[in-house]
Structure formats: C-alpha cells, structure tokens
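We include the entry.

. . .
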Amino acid sequence: MPSVQIGDLKDGDFLLDVREDDEWQAGHAQGALHIPISEFVARYGELTEAAPQDGRVHVICRSGGRSAQVTMYLAQQGIDAVNVDGGMQVWAAAGRPVVTDEGKPGHVL
C-alpha cells in the first residue's frame, strides 16, 4: 500500500483525517478534512468535492490502521491516496502542530 512518512508532507498537502469525533475534537492537523471512518462511505462525496483534482489525498488516523483501510478503498476508486505512516501520534511527536476547532493547542487521543 502506498504510504508516506510525516517528514515527507509539505504545507498545503491535502490531509484527510478519518479518526472519530472525540479524537478530532481533542486535536487535529490544521486544515485537514475530517470524515470519520465510521461515516466514510456515506460521506464519500464530501471528499470528492474537497480533494484537489488530480491531487494526492494523504490519509491519517491515530496510528495508521484505519487510514490504511481508507487508503486501500480510495485506491480502488481510482484516487491517488497514500497512508500517513504512524498517524497523528507520529505527527505530534515530530512537533507538527495539533489544534482544536478553536485553533488552540490540542493533543492526540
């Protein structure tokens, strides 16, 4: 399965967070699109509207398991998607900003 390391992500890369609502509210990457894996198929249209045309979708969760499932699904739909190795745990450990919806510092559940 295609994957990338946190260090390979650049500002402006399209990020899809598939964690559940409580995890998102605790803290997330600023600018990420949030569609929980439990609602993903029903809300798939939100992704296709928001994702850049001919761009890559970087899928992230807490540690990489759920995002791997969504990445495989997206690849089957013909979307250029990659799993973010290590997920939000590695994101935070690498010093990348984690924020709440109010823009305040957040944390990873």
Q: What stands out?
A: Strands lie at 3-4, 14-17, 33-34, 57-60, 81-84. The first strand starts at residue 3 and ends at 4.
